[in-house]
Amino acid sequence: MSLPIYRFVIAPLSGNTPHAAALRQDAHVLGFTDITQIACHEIYFIQGQLTPNHLERLSNELLHDSVTQTCTWQEQTLAETAQQSIEVVLRPGVTDPTAAAIMQNAQLLGIDTINQVTTGKRYQVQSKQPLNQQDLHKLAKRLLANGVIHYYALGNITVSFPAYEKTNQPIEIIPLRQLNDDQLMAESQQRRAALDLAEMQAIQTYFRKHDRDPTDVEFEMIAQTWSEHCSHKTFRAIIECDDGQEIKGLLKTYIRAATEKIAAPWVYSAFVDNAGIIDFDDEYQISFKVETHNHPSAIEPFGGANTGLGGVIRDVLGVSARPIAATDVFCFGQQDCDPKTLPESVLHPRLIASGVVAGVQDYGNKTGIPTVNGAVYYDAAYTANPLVFCGCVGLAPRASHPRHAQKGDRIIVIGGRTGRDGLRGATFSSMTMDAQTETVAGASVQIGDPIIAKGLIEVVTLARDAKLYNAITDCGAGGFSSAVGEMASECGAEVDISVAPLKYPGLAAWEIWLSEAQERMVLAVPPHKLEALKNICQIYDIELTDLGHFNDDKRLLLRNGSQVVLDLEMLFLFDGMPQKKLRAEKSPRSLALATPFFKGGYSSTPPAGKSFSSVPPFEKGELGGILLSLLSHPNIATKAAVIRRYDHEVQGATVIKPLVGVKNDGPSDACVLKPLETKGQRGIVLANGLNPELGKHDPYLMALSVIDEAIRNAVAVGADPDRIAILDNFCWGDPKRPETLGSLVAAARGCYDGALHYQTPFISGKDSLNNEYLGSDGVRHAIPPTLLISAIGIIEDVDNAVTMDLKTPGNCIYLLGETRAELGGSHFALCGGGERGSEVPTLPQHAPVLYRQLHQAMQKKLVRACHDLSEGGFAVAMAEMCIAGRLGAQINLTNADVVTALFSESNGRLLVEIREQDCVVFEKCFTQDLAHLINKIGKVTDDEKLVITHDQQTIISLSVNELVTAWQVNP
Amino acid sequence: MKPRVLILHANGTNRDQSVAYAFNLAGATAEIVHLNQLRAKEKKWSDYQILVIAGGFANADVLGAGKLLALELNSFFAEEMQQFIASGKPVLGICNGFQTLVKGGFLPGFAALQPQATLTYNALGKFECRWVTLMPQSKNCLWTRDLAEPIYCPVAHGEGRFMLTEDKLLKTLKDQQQIALTYADPDKKLMDAEYPLNPSGSIASIAGICNQQGNVLGLMPHPEDHVLARQHPRWARGERGFSGLPLFINAVKTV
User: Fold this and answer.
1) Considering only CA atoms, which of A330, A290, A339, A337 is closest in space to residue A311?
2) How many CA atoms, within 13 angstroms, populate the side-chain half-sphere of residue A646?
3) Between residues 201 and 230 of chain A, which touch chain B (CB distance below 8 Å)?
4) What pLDDT shows up at residue A596?
5) CA–CA min distance A397, chain B (Å)
6) B57–A674: do the CB atoms touch at under 8 Å?
7) Per residue in A702-730, pLDDT tens?
8) Is A657 close to B120, i.e. CB distance below 8 A?
9) Rounded CA gap, A730 and A703, in Å?
10) A21/B contact by beta carbon, under 8 A
11) Which residue of A has its CA nearest to B154?
12) Is the complex ipTM more than 0.90?
């Protein structure tokens, strides 16, 4: 059978598109400076018996927009190597919604003879000197084609459609019982199972007891269930510390312990469900989950971030809630990184950043979920290991989430089909990356389909309201294996895997069971309610399949048609894993000195952005220049270019937006949501805290600082300090190294102390370990200890919310909190200002009380503006308030040390704007013991100038325009 | 009796809830109906007095925003659409709905065989979410003719640049009062606003157009996202007004 393949090329009428300009810019950054243009055309390959009329109709009515594009087509002939062009096509099996849409919609045109479709892009390169073949290949590999999902050719590519193997893959029996220890480890490695010897021995013991060897399905399922990703074994391990302490699980001892000790009555579910859940009002509850998707984003940034967000959206659906907001926090390498210094197979940080942002944009916008809070952080240490944190907030009627599958319930999967995508993702994310990772783990990357996710949101919320299921969970890492396994862990289940709908035939049983294909939810549905669920699914074009039933056998029985391929006791699967024992060494004061990190070590790597042009000790006249440098630092400068790529208005609930102020461009500390469907005035506050720079110095103090920062940000917009919950996300290096584990222990202790200090419970958390890259040079590149704290809070009345922009000339400015000489890990130090004794910010003892009393003042509507002090200290925060309000300020500082006053990053501090006539009442909101922390330092002025004096001497005098220009260096 | 609003939901529609909220505030009864429910005849077109194609990403915007939904409407509901429009009932397409109306040939509604207008990629090539000021222009459009003041509301799109095949068509649009809304500078109230006031780079700052009859309006920005005072980005600065609600009230009061 050889059906003709037609090749359609769609080109823009105007050659110089913004896309072409962006490609040229990327090419220049990668060193191809001769390139003057890269024009990009769409190519569609359509296989089938098509008449000339068919081809014409496809072109005109489906494939192109004649107002802006041209379309040409011809039958694919043998490859001709045109000069200076590269064609890139998606690999078979990669999710391709465009190809699917062409197949489906051609039928609406009455064309039903299309057999297969694939899509790609054609890049026409123009340069001062023609590129030689070698350079074209380099350009293709570095910029245009990601080998994980694409293949490419110079000139015209020839596509062929794979004939999928239709036969069933046989089940493999793994002769585990007879293996010695070395062979066990070899087996674990060969299957990329990431299991250690004790775990392999436990499996061996189980099967020796049962007098048989495991099938490949059984082995893969155990590896997945016991993976770091799914079982968090490091956080559950027994840790022996070098100070003699034995910790029986970090999670239990520190994180959950804090939540239990605080025992907030409004916490509904912490660390039990797919997401943490707290009470909102008498009718609703809100849920929140934040996850990382670091490894997939490193090798395929768009798909990695895309499915990162997809995963947390499903987590929220997995607690029967409707997603109402998304958050995203990224850590990237330096954007101007010299491509020649990049380790082999590591993508340029600029491409990682643009791919990740596009991935979140695609999924968040298309699912109709506003992305409203986040952060972007740049450090060379994230070059090979970027961090991508995605969060999702859900809203659901109180106690509407059923959790227990009943005997006889059908096991129903709804949503996307199963393919080879994401195989072994759970175990993959538990391993160190190396130069081979890209090729070996290619299958571990998933591409999302946000429109199916949107359909799932509609179906699940309707099914919840009609009470059609007894339990629900999402297919995340580990796919069916993890979803069905967890749901059946208390009862038991029998599944026939052969009925699972597949994207293409030829998958082995273990592949179907473990696949991490996106957009699938598993529900436990009583048989008599199945029809009603089918009806809902039909409306939204969501596929539904009955995989089997839950029982009370306490075992999992998996068949592939008539053949039993897995038969495991639930008790072994979920409790059979030997508890890990690990050793921790107290981390040295500065980790940077002890461990070989990314080339040159992150301690000595020059920071992203420019260092100060002047060197310490600074003259007073140089302080203004330093402030401008800090405002332009990539970690501090405006993130508007990213924020505006996300729809933060959809759902109509965004009351305090990510960008605020007179020109809608000031950096909000947090966002406030008031969902349209809830009654009354109550709102939700979202904020975060992140500071890897402190992680390099002292992980314990970093944990305290980021907890304070997250809470401080939430309080700054009006959250009730007694109604804030937090989530942790630990991103660390390899915990098998005792000093790395030591730093993790330190941070976990910080979490405990910080949570208790503020009486702020943890409700959910996640860890991503092994964020290291083993270069071909044999050097391990690790990230700095990075802890993200995400905060979700309640504001009683959204009309009392406060923004950070200065409001009215003549109003008074107060600095709340205590400024200490804490420049260690500050951005002032990072940019060359020196550490001044290198004190790292500590826990502000006064902060919880200060925040509560400030909150009282806000409820009395006394606070006109409020902004938290973070990176860059007082000077940056004050400048940001001026920028957002396009107003000036006249400030007088009295601290002894002017550098401390301007740039120290002490915790627990906020700036507030108060009307002159309200000052007395405002000050009375604070008790006498806090009086020294409430300092009137100046006034808002209408001369659009920030003037700061010290000792009657003007030390900074900058126009608001100058501040804006510096801060909007990359608008 | 309150007028009933049919809000179309296709796979990927996501501003249906907000636009339903706006119409309910405006005094109508809005109902969100999936295309499949209309195809199965569970719901009848004739039961509704107003039709809305809401924003979102119907069919993921593959092959061009609005294109596939337009194809579906023309394949399954050509007659119903034609009747609804010809009877003079108010029809509104917002964002993805506007794209659908243009790609489907319902707007601007020139009687030409080849498409003469489109909504394509923003001039800067990026999706953008930002607030814009809209000046009502058409005295003929039932949605905009009684608007006394501009509308302040957000855009959130990547393919909102209105383009025509020929310059002279712009004059036709002007002459026939088909330019319904333009992006404007809130301070100067000028036509021909430039980026970022006109975020997509649309010709003649066009944000929305209507058909010659004036009952079908398509616009890229989201007036449904500014129907409450607290949705204004500067309410905390005491700023109020320029809500999108009057646009919805305008249509509701005609039926």
Assistant:
1) A290
2) 29
3) none
4) 32
5) 17
6) no
7) 999 999 999 999 999 999 999 999 999 99
8) no
9) 10
10) yes
11) A649
12) yes
* Amino acid identity for residue A581 in this structure: K
The DSSP line for chain B is -PPEEEEEE-TTB-SHHHHHHHHHHTT-EEEEEEHHHHHTTSS-GGG-SEEEE--B-GGGGTTSTTHHHHHHHHHH-HHHHHHHHHTT--EEEETHHHHHHHHTT-SS----SS--EEEE--TTSS-EEEEEEEEE--SS-TTTTT--S-EEEEEEES--EEEESSTHHHHHHHHTT-EEEEEE-TTT--SS--TTTSTT--GGGEEEEE-TTS-EEEESS-GGG-SSGGGSTTGGGT-----SHHHHHHHHHH-
* A138 and chain B in contact, CB less than 8 A: no
Burial of B168 (0-12, 13-18, 19+ CB in 10 A): exposed
Is the CB of residue A810 less than 8 Å from the CB of residue A940? yes
CATH class of B4-252: alpha beta
**What is the three-class DSSP state of A151?**
strand
The domain locations on chain B are 4-252
Among residues B205, B189, B104, B234, which one has the least CA distance to residue A807?
B234
What confidence score (pLDDT) does residue A607 get? 46
Rounded to whole angstroms, the Cα distance separating A558 from A61 reads 47
pLDDT of amino acid A419? 83
Collect all residues with Cβ–Cβ distance below 8 Å to A541 and sequence separation of at least 6: A455, B11, B36
Of B36, B125, B130, the CB nearest to A644: B130
As averages over each run of 10 residues, the pLDDT of chain A (971 residues) reads 88 84 90 92 95 96 95 79 83 84 94 94 93 92 87 88 68 94 93 90 96 95 88 89 90 96 97 95 98 91 93 97 98 90 85 95 97 95 94 96 96 92 58 46 68 97 98 91 92 95 86 91 98 98 97 95 94 90 74 35 41 69 92 95 97 98 97 97 98 93 97 98 98 91 94 97 94 76 93 98 98 97 91 74 95 98 98 97 98 90 96 98 97 97 95 94 93 54
- The token duo for A713 is 């940000």
Would the CA dihedral through A934, A938, A941, A946 be positive or negative?
negative
Query: Which conformational region is residue A720 in: left (phi greater than 0), alpha (psi within -120 to 50 degrees), or beta?
Result: beta
Using the Cβ of A57 and the Cβ atoms of chain B, whether some distance falls under 8 Å is answered with no
Q: What are phi and psi of B238, to 5 degrees?
A: 85, 5
Within A253-293, residue ranges assigned H as helices are: 256-262
- A760 vs A763: CA distance, rounded Å: 10
The type of residue at B147 is L
- Yes or no, beta carbons of B14 and A803 under 8 Å apart: no
pLDDT at res. A971: 54
Residue of A nearest to B223 (CA): A652
CA dist list (Å): A897 to A707, A837, A900, A902: 27, 13, 5, 9
Contact A19, A10 (CB under 8 A): no
β partners of residue A374: A328
Amino acid identity of residue A363, one-letter, is: Y
- Any B CB within 8 A of A451 CB: yes
A11 forms bridges with which residues in the sheet?
A70
Contact A649 B222 (CB under 8 A): yes
Closest Cα in chain B, distance from residue A879 (Å):
19
Residue A716 at interface with chain B, using a CB cutoff of 8 Å = no
The CA–CA distances, whole Å, from B22 to B25, B81, B222, B252 equal: 5, 23, 11, 11
Residues of A marked active site are found at 229, 293
d(CA B138, CA B217): 11
Closest residue in B to A448 (Cα–Cα): B60
Structure tokens, A135: 């350079």
From chain B, the residues in CB contact with A539 under 8 A are 34, 36-37
List of chain A residues whose C-beta atoms are within 8 Å of the C-beta of residue B60: 97, 101, 366, 449-451
What is residue A606's predicted lDDT score, i.e. its pLDDT? 42
